[in-house]
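User: Could you write out the 3D structure of this protein bound to pyridoxal-5'-phosphate? I've included everything you need below.
Assistant: Certainly. Input first, then the structure.
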Amino acid sequence: MKINEKQTEAAKRQSTESMWSSLDKSFVWHPFTQMEQWNQSNSLVIESGEGNYLFDTEGNRYFDGISSLWTNVHGHNHPKINQAIINQAEQIAHCTLLGLASPPSIALAQRLVDITPTGLSKVFYSDSGSSAVEIAIKMAFQYWKNRGQTQKTKFVSLKNAYHGDTLGAVSVGGIDLFHEVFSPLLFSGFSVTPPYLYRDPLGGTEQECCNRAVLELHELLETNHQSIAAMIVEPLVQGAAGMLTYASDYLRKVSELCKEFEVLLIVDEVATGFGRTGTMFACEHEKIHPDLVCLAKGITGGYLPLAATLVTDEIYAMFLADPSEDKQFFHGHTYTGNALAAAAALASIQIFEDDDVITNLAPKIQLIDKELTEKIKPLSFVGDIRQCGMMVGIELVRDKEKAISFACDELIGAQVCHKARDYGVILRPLGDVIVLMPPLSSTKDELVSLIDTVASSILDITGSM
Ligand SMILES: Cc1ncc(COP(=O)(O)O)c(C=O)c1O
């Protein structure tokens, strides 16, 4: 290409960029975003994706360091998933599951039952993680009602939990910043302290911290189990709270206590599912068998909105009755079990198998650990590093010794992530926690480069402090 042509091309791209950016500001309201602030900057407009990279309208390439908000699994524009969607579109894109059934939704349900923890046998589809959780809550509630135990109506959740943004999911959530404003609309329940040592004022060892959390839950269930329908947890990692990891021991104890006190256990694998923690599902780390499991995000390999709530036979059976008894589950979404999304999910699960994705994760996870220890841990403003498989949170603090946070309005996390773009990496912080959740298909070189970029970005922003 001659220089003039290149300039024209660049000018064309430049004008396309500003056109999209200005149209974006004119018409789109972005999620979890102060639009006043957004409207003052140029929107980064992503036009395409290839493998583990995103490309903006100017042709700039970025490594997708957060898997497009924790969804992408095998990379973008994957030929097998693309083809599965095309093949399905040539058959039919969607038909309702209200009164009809469809091969992709049937085949996927069978596959999900196959790969999830033993005991889960029925699949109820929806289209977002929040909906999958909302459904689990309503199912747990109605299960006890159908059993005639109408006093079991309350839910237990963990402090700092995040289960989505619909009102039921918010009611069992515990992040004040997101949830406070809606508090008059929410139902009340119980919340217990998860074992999170870094900011635990009582200190001690990990095991002591875990024991305290178990004791607190034990006491709560012992006193209140007759009014409790279910407990809901994010297994091993409280993602949106800042990648707060907890000992897998706690998950096992939660499962045991729920069984002991006849409280259903809902495990929200929306973020952790499909390989993120190093196993297909986080439940596998302790071989627990929940009563209900919520799946979304990675279920379609990050292609299309689809979610599922899986339940045991015992729960399902409690909804079976003569129609006149009104025991059926009164819930359903228009796009439930969408055929294109189900085809994408089937293809994604097949790739897990064909490419032996889970086995291949172990060395990548070890490499991340090593790189974090060598390059990130020594940095002056890094207070805590939390890793569970391919999920990482790097907490930046003003005072490393005393674990004192930066002031909120310093927006350190946001500044670091913005800086990373200059190095060609897309990140999104949770407050001052830098989140890394690269696609499972990331190569070792890409992972090293990702962590190098994070180190450089932290140093660039905090260097003069
Ligand atoms: C553990 C967990 N549950 C539920 C949700 C909500 O999922 P969605 O955004 O698809 O509604 C999220 C989203 O981040 C999540 O991390």
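The CA atoms of residues 160 and 174 lie 4 Å apart.
User: Perfect, thank you.
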